[in-house]
Design a protein that fits this description.
Length: 123
């Protein structure tokens, strides 16, 4: 099963104002991007403790944004297990699908923000 990207229904509920939602999407992109880069760096340094903390935080962020906690947990499971065991080889193989997903999620955040930016402002 493919991991969903954004739960726009939830975001519309939490941020009914288009300008606030636009700001949230841009800030979420900024934070997620920084966390993804930090995770990649920690994995490259074989700093499993830092990578594990980052992966946990990113997993929570992704689950909030996509509204699919169980599916997100399954996506991160191989990476989390490899980090817990400090297994560098499995960290790389478990991290690849996670990093690819995060890149897609970053694009989805920017696309959603751009879509909002193109809409006429009311009020």
């Amino acid at each position: 099963m493919m991991t969903p990207l954004l739960d726009m229904e939830l975001l519309l509920e939490l941020y009914p104002d288009a300008a606030a939602r636009h700001g949230f999407l841009l800030r979420a992109h900024e934070l997620l991007s920084a966390d993804r880069v930090a995770l990649q760096d920690a994995m490259a340094r074989r700093d499993h403790v830092s990578a594990r903390e980052l992966a946990h935080r990113i997993q929570g962020t992704a689950a909030f944004l996509n509204g699919a906690r169980e599916i997100t947990q399954k996506l991160f499971s191989r990476l989390n297990l490899a980090l817990a065991r400090a297994n560098a080889t499995r960290t790389i193989s478990g991290g690849e699908p996670v990093l690819a997903y995060l890149s897609d999620l970053e694009v989805a955040l920017l696309n959603a923000a751009e879509d909002l930016g193109a809409q006429p402002r009311t009020g």
